[in-house]
Amino acid sequence: MPETAQYVDPRRWKALIFIALAQLMVVLDATIVNIALPSAQADLGIADGNRQWVITAYALAFGGLLLFGGRIADLWGRKQTFIVGLLGFAAASAIGGAALNTGMLLGARALQGVFGALLAPSALSLLAVMFTDPKERAKAFGVFGAIAGGGGAVGLILGGVLTEYMDWRWTFFVNIPFAIIAVVGAVAVIREPVESRNSSRLDIPGVILATTGLVALVYGFTRAESDGWTAGLTVGLFIAAAVLLLAFVIVESRVKAPLLPLRVVADRNRGGVYASLALAIIGMFGLFLFLTYYMQIVKGYSPVKTGFAFLPMVAGMITGSTQIGARLMTRVPARRLMGPGFLVASVGMLLLTQIDLDTSYPTLILPGFLLLGLGMGTAFMPAMSLATHGVEPRDAGVASAMVNTSQQVGGAIGTALLNTIAASATTEYAKSHAAGATSRKALELQSMVHGYTSAIWWAVGILVLAAVIAITLVNAGQPENGGAVAGSGDGAAEDAIPVMAH
């Protein structure tokens, strides 16, 4: 192992503050606009057919360019990419907040996605190369995992507060101070080992195939939600995505300097992490959407009250990640945290299948949120750490990008899949109960709730599947001498980041 790998940066904990702040900004931006969208639509006169693009433009750019962003981080250096991503994200947010029409707003959202794709993988890979001691790494990834898991719920809270008490434009402007503070902090305290860069030539065919393939996949699920799964455009997009991504794999196996070295995803630990995280996000993002509508439309909560109703879940995620996951990561194999964590989350989700028109928040929704948060936080922490398990330093950026890619694609799939299930169940319930309905409004609400619970049942099954994958594929070994969990897999090279003892 090179001597440089043993260097311990004395300012690494200060750096974590600014890296975590940047990650929070990116993650919460995926949901903060959701609550503000009705106000923005009314203010700018956005047509109903175009409003989904406020969300989709961000998802397409972010999800499609993440692997490219990770490779750029390896090539340019993570610190430089991190700072460029922050400045670009702040500029795009300023444009979005000042938007005068639909095109300006959609363009700003796409730009946010572009710079988010630079920022997210560089943030995670900075942690991978800065925190080398197993116990310290566990703590650092505990914080990062809590933010990655809870940022979406924080976005709902912040979006509600800003929309209700200020203006929808502040859901964009709020990113600017976040970014400025993170840039100043990054310049002052972040130091990156120069030896960890990958100066290989950029794989242009890989960039084109990966970006177009992922965009087609994410857009396909978006169209499935609105047009149906059998629509010509939907099917065509899925076929195109399959062909492009298959071509990407073939190209990556043959070029000298691939965009995504197949060794990064071939390792069973990392592959298990990517798959289980994607499934967990599928369940979580659908739940956020359903419970937001349930509390505002069925329960009559205000945007602020709805946002704060999610707060116990955020608290659960932080507790699970920093107090359970981080403390146990160096003592037990990761699968014994990830598997049970996803199962506990599925129990919380199971409680939420029981919601009805008159469900009490304290007796049912609150315990469901707490269990969901605790489980997800406990599972996310080792997942984030294992995402760069055994990778060579020069691959840290693209390995980190795969985490964000699995989350982003999982979020797009979850929203489309569970929304489609909910809509179908709602329609069927309304038809079958129309004859005996005493009130059209009551039938409408009851049908809506039935649709939500039907989709949440699917989310329970998806979380159980995530647990099964984590338990069977993630095989990082037992702790050795009270130290890190011993790794396994063919991705661990002699000059690998000293994440875990081999």
UniProtKB/TrEMBL annotation:
<dbReference type="InterPro" id="IPR005829">
    <property type="entry name" value="Sugar_transporter_CS"/>
</dbReference>
<feature type="transmembrane region" description="Helical">
    <location>
        <begin position="141"/>
        <end position="162"/>
    </location>
</feature>
<dbReference type="GO" id="GO:0005886">
    <property type="term" value="C:plasma membrane"/>
</dbReference>
<feature type="transmembrane region" description="Helical">
    <location>
        <begin position="202"/>
        <end position="222"/>
    </location>
</feature>
<feature type="transmembrane region" description="Helical">
    <location>
        <begin position="15"/>
        <end position="37"/>
    </location>
</feature>
<dbReference type="InterPro" id="IPR020846">
    <property type="entry name" value="MFS_dom"/>
</dbReference>
<feature type="transmembrane region" description="Helical">
    <location>
        <begin position="82"/>
        <end position="104"/>
    </location>
</feature>
<keyword id="KW-1003">Cell membrane</keyword>
<feature type="transmembrane region" description="Helical">
    <location>
        <begin position="110"/>
        <end position="129"/>
    </location>
</feature>
<keyword id="KW-1133">Transmembrane helix</keyword>
<feature type="transmembrane region" description="Helical">
    <location>
        <begin position="307"/>
        <end position="325"/>
    </location>
</feature>
<feature type="domain" description="Major facilitator superfamily (MFS) profile">
    <location>
        <begin position="15"/>
        <end position="478"/>
    </location>
</feature>
<dbReference type="InterPro" id="IPR004638">
    <property type="entry name" value="EmrB-like"/>
</dbReference>
<dbReference type="InterPro" id="IPR011701">
    <property type="entry name" value="MFS"/>
</dbReference>
<feature type="transmembrane region" description="Helical">
    <location>
        <begin position="337"/>
        <end position="355"/>
    </location>
</feature>
<keyword id="KW-0472">Membrane</keyword>
<dbReference type="InterPro" id="IPR036259">
    <property type="entry name" value="MFS_trans_sf"/>
</dbReference>
<feature type="transmembrane region" description="Helical">
    <location>
        <begin position="228"/>
        <end position="251"/>
    </location>
</feature>
<feature type="transmembrane region" description="Helical">
    <location>
        <begin position="361"/>
        <end position="384"/>
    </location>
</feature>
<dbReference type="Pfam" id="PF07690">
    <property type="entry name" value="MFS_1"/>
</dbReference>
<dbReference type="GO" id="GO:0022857">
    <property type="term" value="F:transmembrane transporter activity"/>
</dbReference>
<keyword id="KW-0813">Transport</keyword>
<protein>
    <submittedName>
        <fullName>MFS transporter</fullName>
    </submittedName>
</protein>
<feature type="transmembrane region" description="Helical">
    <location>
        <begin position="272"/>
        <end position="295"/>
    </location>
</feature>
<dbReference type="GO" id="GO:0046677">
    <property type="term" value="P:response to antibiotic"/>
</dbReference>
<feature type="transmembrane region" description="Helical">
    <location>
        <begin position="455"/>
        <end position="474"/>
    </location>
</feature>
<keyword id="KW-0046">Antibiotic resistance</keyword>
<keyword id="KW-0812">Transmembrane</keyword>
<feature type="transmembrane region" description="Helical">
    <location>
        <begin position="52"/>
        <end position="70"/>
    </location>
</feature>
<feature type="transmembrane region" description="Helical">
    <location>
        <begin position="168"/>
        <end position="190"/>
    </location>
</feature>
